[in-house]
Amino acid sequence: MKIAVLKERRFNETRTAATPESVKKLIGLKHSVAIEAGAGVTAGIRDDDYVAAGATVGSVADVLKGADIIFKVRAPDAAELATYPKGAALLGLLDPYAAKKEAAAYAAAGVVTVAMEFVPRITRAQSMDVLSSQANLAGYRAVIEGSQLYGRAMPMMMTAAGTVAAAKVFVMGAGVAGLQAIATARRLGAVVSATDVRPASKEQVASLGAKFIAVEDDEFKAAETAAGYAKPMSAEYQAKQAELVASHIVKQDIVVTTALIPGRAAPVLVTEAMVKSMRPGSVIIDLAVAQGGNCPLSKPDEVVDVNGVKVAGFTNLPGRIAADASALYARNLLALLPLLTGENAAFAPKWDDEIVKAAVLTKDGAVVHAALKDG
Predict the structure, then answer these.
(1) Which end of the chain has less neighbouring CB within 10 Å, N or C?
(2) DSSP label at 217?
(3) Shared domain check, 171 and 283
(4) Active site residue 129
(5) Three-class SS of residue 11?
(6) How far apart are CA 122 and CA 126, in angstroms?
(7) From the centroid of its chain, how far is CA 261?
(8) Do the domain assignments include residue 371?
């Protein structure tokens, strides 16, 4: 197959869908790789690096001509989609929960689309799990951003002039991003606590050396789906949890919120009153800002000052470490590719495979994913 890799055109997107490492492996699988000039610059990859790995570099028209598969990080806009060859397949982060209109456009363009967000979280798909690979980096970067905005030292320091107290970090949501945030804050010497509504997270939090904070009643014990996601909690539970969090958060220096429910607005975890109860100089990093935010005061890609408390909402934290994020993303795409190829490395998706079924949005000129069909 000919695999095309295009430059990302979405605002604030610095990642790329291929690296010299992945290009070498793709060519080793008997594919050819064409990359738009400048596609890797924001991730620290020069065109010459791609050429040395065996790819060709050229204009959009040259790259797309005869392409069988297009690798992207973010979904194309209408103008970009119009340049795609009919019958080509598009792999990327397509924001599928909010993409009913876009899915119809993909189908009309005759493009097969695979949403990497819909790759199921099952054992055999771990190497393809883009959400986990990018969330891991987001959790790490959230703490780095928080420490920079905090303006004080993170670890305890004993000096001749006196002792500097360790920062107190509270992580809300102990999924992939949250666990990495806990681990990073601990490595930086902070005193860390964390909360989550999933019972399994308690042991995970403790294993990283953090204190677990939650209302552990009967509802809490059944608050996890079979897929490992948090269930929406009742208003009664939310009120009890909010009361506990409010008494805890007032003592914290850095709060990292990571709670997301696929296909839904982000739950509010840190209220305006909680923010105002925190000490001046404290920091909140809201990882859910792109889906409405876990804090109603956060704004996309802004740092809001609320009585001296900084509330930061970064919509693309993995993009702030683009080289590593691109490397992991490219490996995720590479891992999925065998399910889309047949003999002689030709484009022949295994349509009946559970992973392919879960991730394909459009094929044969129609929207095929149940979540995006009309009616």
Answers:
(1) C
(2) S
(3) yes
(4) yes
(5) coil
(6) 7
(7) 13
(8) no
